[in-house]
Amino acid sequence: MPPTFHHDLRDDDHDVPGGGDSDGVRVLRAAPRPALTPQSFRLPPLRRRPFIPRSAPNMLLRRPRRWQQLFGGTVLGLVIGLLVVAFTRDPDAYRQCAPGEEPPGPPGSPPSGAAAGSGSSGFGFGFRYGSGSEQWTSPPAPPGYGADHDPLHLLEPGSKPGGRRGLVMVGVMTADKYLPTRAAAVWDTWGKELPGGIAFFSAGFSRPPPNRPDLPLVALKGVDDSYPPQKKSMKMIEYLWEQYGDHFEWFLRADDDVYVRPDKLEKLLRSVDSSKPQFIGQAGRGNQEEFGLLSLEFDENFCMGGPGVLFSRETLARVAPHVKYCLQNLYTTHEDVELGRCVQRFAGIPCTWSYEMQNILYHNSSGNDAFTGNLKHREVHRAITLHPIKQYRYLYRVHNYMGQLKIQESWQESLSLHRDIEAMLELLGHDAAHPEKVQLAKNVPLFTARRGDRDYLGDSALLGKPPSLNKYRPKDEAGVLPWDFISRSLFSAGHGNPRRRIESALREGLDDVVREVMDMINAFSKQRGRVIEYREILYGYHRLSPVYGADYILDLLLVYKKYRGKKMTVPVRRHAYLQQQFTGLEIRETVEGEEVGRQPPDQALSEDGDDGGQQQGPHSPQGASFREAFENGLLRIGDALPSLLGRDGEGRDEEARDEASVRRKVINFILPLAGRFTTFSRFVSVFEEVCLQNEEPVSLFVILFPSETEVSANETVTLMASLQRRYPKHRLAVVPVFDSFARALALEIGAAQVKDGQDDLLFFIDVDMVFSRATLERIRVNTIRGRQAYFPIVFSEFEPATVYRDQGLTVAPNHFLINQDTGYWRQYGFGIVSLYKSDLRKVGGFDTSIRGWGKEDVDLYDKFVVSMAANNVSVFRAADPNLVHVFHIVDCDPNLEPSQLKMCKGTRADTLGGVGQLADIIYSQGQAALNYASRRRTAAAAPPASVGEAGAAPPRPAQPAP
């Protein structure tokens, strides 16, 4: 008889001699062929086929017994079929798969029909139906999985058995559902920067996720993702020793929600002897509820698994052979407790009893919110591992922050090297101001690269000066840098608001400085047996030098704690003179948010090693343009930058095309207007001169409201019609609105005039603005669809009668004269903005319920800031010296809402003049000014008289200001 197929439910590696597949997946296999006997060849007796009439089916149904037999057989067949399917279905089939992924199956078998036909990267198996009998299909084997699977593929390149061992092998315990998220995040961040290898350990049915097919995954045979992961942890320890024991000195057991700093980990492990048994981690004995219930002796502990556990090679060699015994003798459900018990029993060592491990292997008890806030904390900076990071996206954020710290350390190292060069030049009698002229030997210069070259190392004469508050020496009184006084508030002599709260940027800078200072103070605290803690800044001074950096003079309140010898705790004060030095000038060009990369060095050089005939050095065009940009402190974006970066050939043409496409962006000017025809005429004159005469791709929409003070609507329409006739290629339109003036409503109506599409770049502007072509360039470059909105910081003029009072002028002779005497930067003004219409709709547009003056710009800015994470549209702010707000008297309607009225009055006060100018006017009045201030103070302090009160005299009118 032919062989029949049945479902074998036995485990391949336990019940089947010879092993078979290694991951325990059940397969269909043929039953053994029966032995041949004489009875096998004996044919059954022949029976005559009975005659069945055509009416037999109806006759069968009429017989109750036959009908019941037919129904019962059908039901029984369905039940048997369902039971067969249930018992033969592989448990992998119930695993939740990623989109586009089929359930996994036995490795090494051909792909299923769907997967094979579509080229899907997922893994799956099952039955494929078609013409003929059913056919078994199995998934494609991922890299490293199959009969020829070599686990050593996870090692470092070049690592060989018996050779020099790597430093550390990291085993990350994860689960199948976390492979596309947490495990992938670990692999993308710190996992690729380790001084060794890394492997991810998961259940036996796990496979690398489709989004990370290169993930170094080890699917532990016979292990699932159940919690607690005691078996997974022990099997991982056994696997690490069997496969990688001869290749590494250290082994780290980590979770998939921990961040490891590879540089600090390497520094720690290099300082410890790995030939001795070492069991390093954050020691624990259980919480208060579990204390005494974990079967631990008085001198036993365990290493808490969350922040990570380190094993030396000797420790792993003693523990790994006894994993099976440890699994058979479990006392608790805690994986890290049982691991510690196993190490204590067979390696004879406890976890490190060290208080410092709480800082090195840092655990944050905030749960899911851990490391989602501010990362500028001493604990974060000092730690080697950070745990837990439950939201895997924040793992990338932490990684970026650690990268910034490494960059700062590199900058500091570079400054130290420049200072060493400067000191040695002075000792050797060379001119330290010109290190480029120094030669180590004949025709062997100290610096082979010159200013402007790609490999230029920086100006040692500038960066090599030792820290000092006297680096900058002013040439005259005007060049003296003022100090700001820091106390509970910030006091500045040259600021529009002399007393104000400390800005967030300065506060953050102070936190960084204090943290660095305390690290330097406590650098040798262990040797000296004391520790000094920071309390507060009593007072201080701060100034900023554009050439050298930020200077601080701080008076700190500290607490001195001595814990060795005669113990004491006393408050102390310390005066600190500090300087944060600036590093070299960094130049980066972007087009539409994408960085314009430089040509690789191997492509820039010709075959014989020269630079293809291009001149290099300080006298070359590239070096000259760089020197001009560096010395002037201003990089002239435009024609100088392509030559600066050394572009030529096809790459330069392609970049030129990209820049040309940016310059072709159509800017749609949206201008709200109510009356003010004279000011509008000036705006039209500027618009015509800058935009229309130069054939700039622009359009102008004037949203015209009726005015209560002047009748000029007809003149406005006539002027725009005349402009349209002279420039018919441009779209110039007036949109009348028969309602009371509301800027938010006007800007919404103006945005509606522009169709959705590629040319929906909107620029909201006021009629008081003057600008130049450079402003248009900045708008086009800094406004990026779907990524960035541009809120320029405009320069606002002071009242000309104050600025030019000696000359008797009422109008500024030059609107683009920018200094502290002619005006101020509107850092808190957001009314002028450039954005795309699609981005405006993403954040919800303007709040048209806001009527009258102000507040609508702040509301829009807040919407962009709040929705930045959701919409991925950032806010870019920068000062534009070619965008100036011409002075005019600010009239504040007393019927405005209190917040709007306060903002309006504040703006009006800011435009009167600078602090120094107003102080000179007051001082010139002498005693009259003091008398006026005294009367105002007295009137403000007096309680108001009640209406109809007997003897209450009416208040005297305030005297006019002198």
TrEMBL record:
Keywords: Glycoprotein, Golgi apparatus, Membrane, Signal-anchor, Transferase, Transmembrane, Transmembrane helix. Residues 1-16 have a biased composition (Basic and acidic residues). It comes from the Eukaryota. Pfam families: CHGN (PF05679). Its EC number is 2.4.1.-. InterPro entries: Chond_GalNAc (IPR008428), CS_glycosyltransferase (IPR051227), Nucleotide-diphossugar_trans (IPR029044). Residues 101-110 have a biased composition (Pro residues). It is an enzyme of class 2 (transferase). Residues 1-23, 95-118, 136-160, 590-625, 941-962 are annotated as: Disordered. Residues 941-953 have a biased composition (Low complexity). Its main location: Golgi. It is a single-pass type II membrane protein. Coiled coil: none annotated. One of its GO terms (cellular component) is Golgi cisterna membrane. It is found in: Golgi apparatus, Golgi stack membrane. One of its GO terms (molecular function) is glucuronosyl-N-acetylgalactosaminyl-proteoglycan 4-beta-N-acetylgalactosaminyltransferase activity. The chain crosses the membrane at residues 70-88. Belongs to the chondroitin N-acetylgalactosaminyltransferase family. PANTHER family: CHONDROITIN SYNTHASE (PTHR12369), HEXOSYLTRANSFERASE (PTHR12369:SF11). This is Hexosyltransferase. It comes from Megalurothrips usitatus.
